[in-house]
Amino acid sequence: MTCIVWGALGINDGVPIGYKHRPEFWIEQVLFLSTSSALRSLNRVVYSSMLPRGREAQFFGLEITLDLATGWISPLVQGAIQNRTHNLRFPMIPNVLLMLLALGFYIWVDIDKGMVDALQAQSEE
Known about the structure:
Elements: H1 2-9, H2 22-49, H3 56-70, H4 73-85, H5 92-108, H6 111-124
């Protein structure tokens, strides 16, 4: 999230940072690439821990289907924003909003209760 917020700071011409210098891009790449795999693994583990046993393939199939069905929306929105503003930083605004939404879900969802509910659903079947 820091990488996206950092880039969004560059929207303001009066701010000297926000991917306005080449080293900022290299630092962002190191941070993003060194943490994205760990975060993706964490998300998979949390997601799978809240699924009823024996139905993992069904839910992961749904996740993959939704990912493929909606994967074109973000580039379309970002391209439209960039074409209208002629600025590479404005497309980061929807990403910041989506990250805040995801953070809200992480705070709102009770993961421990989800794990217990998944076990209860298994025992009821």
